[in-house]
Amino acid sequence: MRQIILTTALILGLGYAAQAQTKAGIHFGYGTEIKKAAIGVNAEFGITDKITVAPDFTYYFTEKTEYVKWSLWELNANGHYYFLDQDKFKVFGLAGLNYAQSKVTMDIPFGGLFGMENNSASKGKIGFNLGGGGTYDLTDNIQAFSTLKYTIGSTDQLVIMIGARYIF
Known about the structure:
The two termini are 37 Å apart. The chain has 1 helix and 8 strands; from the N terminus they run αββββββββ. The longest helix has 18 residues, at 2-19. Strands 1-2-3-4-5-6-7-8 form an 8-stranded antiparallel beta barrel. Helices cover 11% and strands 68% of the residues.
């Protein structure tokens, strides 16, 4: 009896997952606290008609001076709740987790004389995302989107993103 219930649940789950919409794309953005432009990749996986899981990876453009190079990337795991659905236009709220990794590398001239030829340090922090956004279906397979979120805890900044996704 237990095997029949598990098998039935598995078949229904796989059937539901096959119907769920999957999207993948690219985005461009700007972080207000670090004052840097960004580029990234994202996806969105439908759980229900109103709830999706939306992971993304974002890389902020590197800042380099004569002796110092700074970089930042972040990995986000957000959930979207669609509360407005008007045919091609949709609006969602988002909440999720953020992991940000920053790295500073110093290339000191004549540093080898003092044992400081090339020093680097990196640090990772976890934060929370709160925000919202909207999508617009340009075609049956291409969707434009924008997101405005505030990251609390890791970089404490407001981030705006625009991008496009392919709908599978």
